[in-house]
């Protein structure tokens, strides 16, 4: 089912500029400094704090977003509902709610699932290196997407998502953190998926 009618908010909210300072952390998530978003993602990346949101509808379908062509890393790849970084002196919970509203025009309760560290190389000059907190939420409304951040979006059933994740071309179409998180959610957090159905 396509729920995209009249749900775009082009330019209504701003994205996070490359000059915005991200929070550098150690492997125990202790703050160790700040660095611009651009420099955090150069080379093999510098470990920084991040979050990732998985939003489901009343049918248990996941909201996917296709990243804007203007993204430096993984442009046009499909990913989970929302991913971003807290600002200096901003809690991960506050940042998660802020970005959910800025990117998707959605407000809903979020449940923390787990935290994990990963490094993923996009090309020779850019990468993600994050300590990422993963949250799940439920929303009955249609998103109003920020076109500066998102090219396209769709709802997908959990069964269809699993098929896409297992496809031979998944690495070329789906962001690496999306694939890593889905594997851990299915392995360790199935009850959280059940409450969305």
Task: List the keywords.
24% helix, 9 strands, disordered N terminus, Nucleoside Triphosphate Pyrophosphohydrolase, 6 helices, 3-stranded antiparallel beta sheet, single chain, 197 residues, 4-stranded mixed beta sheet, alpha+beta, globular
Query: How many runs of DSSP E, i.e. beta strands?
Result: 9
CATH topology: Nucleoside Triphosphate Pyrophosphohydrolase
Tell me the distance between the termini.
Answer: 16 Å
Please name the CATH architecture: Alpha-Beta Complex
Strand/helix succession: EEHEEEEHEEEHHHH
| Strand ordering within the main sheet | 6-3-8-7
| Total helical elements | 6
Q: CATH H level: which superfamily? A: Nucleoside Triphosphate Pyrophosphohydrolase
User: What is the helical fraction, as a range of percent?
Assistant: 10-25%
| Assembly type | single chain
CATH class: Alpha Beta
Strand content: 25-35%
Q: How many domains make up the 3D coordinates?
A: 1
As residue ranges, the low-confidence spans are 1-14
Structural class: alpha+beta
What's the shape? globular
Summarize the main sheet: 4 strands, mixed
Radius of gyration, in angstroms, nearest whole number: 16 Å
